[in-house]
Write a sequence for this structure.
């Protein structure tokens, strides 16, 4: 790999910045907003990614400044969210693959996931289908133009809920989409794991680009996305419970409705998730006992089954329980023997209890 420029912290010029530092926002690369904000344009940015990065990181470049870096060593493992640092990852992909980042995404992500109307650039898209971004100024909304930025890999993906759901579901299905392996499941496990050994300043745990946040009693993996001039988005999932959600808003990131929508979608997903897929439930008489057998295809946070019974003249009552298998995607077999029976007709049912009660 022979890059056209080198990235080094001028305060610590002998320290190496690694891929992992870039993916965990610990590289010491800083977003210098006094330089970055004026580069926002209407339509696609005319400044190529590599040209911007060369001028941002190379002494003497038109965007270069020591203020593009934090005054600490990248080996300090200090978290500071860095958009420009993440863009270096896109540039490295270009160098390793020999193709532009947007083309690499098209061939290796968008096309395999049937994301035909997803693009980093406005060019080639039907802009009449793209929501107008709005800003809130002086107690009223103002429409913005469709914008571009040299740092496009961190802010300007145009997509829709159906196509992005293909992306999210691939992670939720351990890297598989429609029976085709897109990513190795071991790779996803690494991406969705704590990389720093401690929470960031916001109390979240940083994976590789993805992060884990505690919300409403559970840990969610995902990422928010916001753009000052008219975009607020979120995409999160709970691997242990096999549910996720996403939403887009064409308004400013701090819009009051954002967390209300986040809460509503989270509540809906929790309510409608299927904790256990029951595939059979049978009862048979053996001697003077009743033997119950049942099987499950998948289980999510399944603490136990409670067995309830009634006769023709009573309500259901608890007669025993069987421990569940927690979370599993393998078929499980269960049985319970009801020895406290006399001649008559009985009805049985199962009550499933999650770990949260």
């Amino acid at each position: 790999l022979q890059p056209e420029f080198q990235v080094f912290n001028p305060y610590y010029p002998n320290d190496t910045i690694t891929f992992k530092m870039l993916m965990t926002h610990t590289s010491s690369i800083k977003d210098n907003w006094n330089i970055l904000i004026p580069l926002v344009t209407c339509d696609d940015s005319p400044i190529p990614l590599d040209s911007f990065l060369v001028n941002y990181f190379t002494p003497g470049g038109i965007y270069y400044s020591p203020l593009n870096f934090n005054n600490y060593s990248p080996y300090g493992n200090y978290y500071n969210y860095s958009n420009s640092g993440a863009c270096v990852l896109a540039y490295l992909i270009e160098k390793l693959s020999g193709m532009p980042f947007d083309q690499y995404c098209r061939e290796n992500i968008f096309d395999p996931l049937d994301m035909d109307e997803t693009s980093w650039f406005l060019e080639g898209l039907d802009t009449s289908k793209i929501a107008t971004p709005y800003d809130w100024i002086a107690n009223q909304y103002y429409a913005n133009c469709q914008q571009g930025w040299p740092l496009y890999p961190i802010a300007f993906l145009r997509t829709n809920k159906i196509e992005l759901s293909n992306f999210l579901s691939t992670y939720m299905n351990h890297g598989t989409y429609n029976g085709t392996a897109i990513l190795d499941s071991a790779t996803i496990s690494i991406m969705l794991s704590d990389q720093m050994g401690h929470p960031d300043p916001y109390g979240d745990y940083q994976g590789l680009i993805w992060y884990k946040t505690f919300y409403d009693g559970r840990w969610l993996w995902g990422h928010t996305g916001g753009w000052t001039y008219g975009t607020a988005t979120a995409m999160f999932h709970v691997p242990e419970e096999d549910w996720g959600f996403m939403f887009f808003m064409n308004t400013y990131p701090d819009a009051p409705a954002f967390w209300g929508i986040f809460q509503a979608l989270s509540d809906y997903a929790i309510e409608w998730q299927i904790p256990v897929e029951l595939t059979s439930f049978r009862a048979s008489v053996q001697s003077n006992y009743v033997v119950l057998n049942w099987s499950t295809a998948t289980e999510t946070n399944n603490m136990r089954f409670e067995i309830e019974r009634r006769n023709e003249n009573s309500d259901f009552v608890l007669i025993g329980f069987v421990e569940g298998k927690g979370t599993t995607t393998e078929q499980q077999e269960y049985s319970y023997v009801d020895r406290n029976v006399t001649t008559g007709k009985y009805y049985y049912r199962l009550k499933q209890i999650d770990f949260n009660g």
Summary: The mean pLDDT is 92. The CA atoms of residues 113 and 333 lie 35 Å apart. Helices lie at 19-23, 33-36, 49-57, 83-97, 101-110, 161-172, 185-191, 257-272.
